[in-house]
Amino acid sequence: MTSRNIPPLLEPYLVIEPSQAQSQILLTGILGANTNWLLLRYLYTLLRSSSSRPPTVSQPQGQRRLGPRIPVAAEPELELRTSYPAQQNGGDTGDQGESGVESVGVLLVSFLRDFAFWKESAGRLGLDLEGLGTRGKLGFVDGLCVGLGSGSDGGGGLPVRRPPVPLAAGGSAGAVPGRGPPVPRPATTTTTGGSPSPGPAEGAKWKRSLPSLAVADVSMTLHSALDELCQKNKKVVLVIDQLDFLLAATSDGNELVSSALKDLLFDLREKSHATILTLSVDDPLIASQVTTLEKDHASFVLSLAHEAEMVVSLRLLDTGIAKDVSGVVRITRGGDSGSERQIEEKEFLYHVGGDGGVRVFERGQ
Predict the structure, then answer these.
(1) Can you tell me the distance from the alpha carbon of 329 to that of 331, in angstroms, rounded to the nearest whole number?
(2) What 3-state class would DSSP assign to 279?
(3) pTM of the entire predicted model
(4) What is the DSSP code string of 11-44?
(5) Which terminus in the chain has less CB density within 10 A, N or C?
(6) What pLDDT, in 10s, does the model give residues 138-197?
């Protein structure tokens, strides 16, 4: 059944079939025709079976169930809840969504947009990203709130949007006059009973930030997040938004960073059921190729397109701006189209409304 959030013409291209193991889908956009709405539809298609679980499965934090538990037979609308008891512990019983559709885990890595953007945008489609992350169906790696250092130690880096470190409530003997109390370590504290209590970020381990933009740090963080999701889900889809930003921020001009990123993607694809990438393909980045950055970017994009099973590209109208048309979406086969899936190449027009709704239609409609 087609959801109102999914344009019917795009629905066949948003489904990732079991035969697409270790496949790669490339989404490309330009200034004025970005891939945000398209990537959100992929996330919705992948996560809607997990997100459709009744919201009353767990009790609100800080409250306690009163009275004896009502038998399932007395409340038939809750029968589906019994299929998810072991999800928090990595069990396989939570891998089936409604109507027996197998749900997958998704690792979302975003380099230009923070979690608040994805949470709000997905919420308009009916996806609760916070709930999905808590249930082990979603992992998020923030590539925006990082230090632009050159190594793991972060030396010489410029901190960008780092959250402030909380200060101690009162003074201490080690405080420096004029500077306030020393910053406490974010370590676990020990209660009077001797058992350690979790730190403030204990309940949000599915959300991570990169320590730096060094490829080694990115690799370590992504592998750790992917391994954790693979323990909780039979299949995990890796989604990386604007990986080309990492290339632009760390490129050394001799293609070493580009080669390292390709090797990293190859390793991550071996662990993932499928990989979805978004890249920018504006003419100055692809056609000109005057500077070393433009050359690295063009080579990087073309290489990923050759390795992709399908390429979905967005562009503006050739005739200019139209009131009821936002741009053109073109679906083509990538260089690696040897799978069993037959991709029918198409070109549609699309319009993104002010409320985030998207209409996709044929020319002349």
Answers:
(1) 7
(2) strand
(3) 0.73
(4) HHHH---TT-TTEEEEEEEBTTB-SHHHHHHHHH
(5) N
(6) 999 999 887 543 333 433 333 344 343 333 334 444 444 444 444 444 444 444 444 444
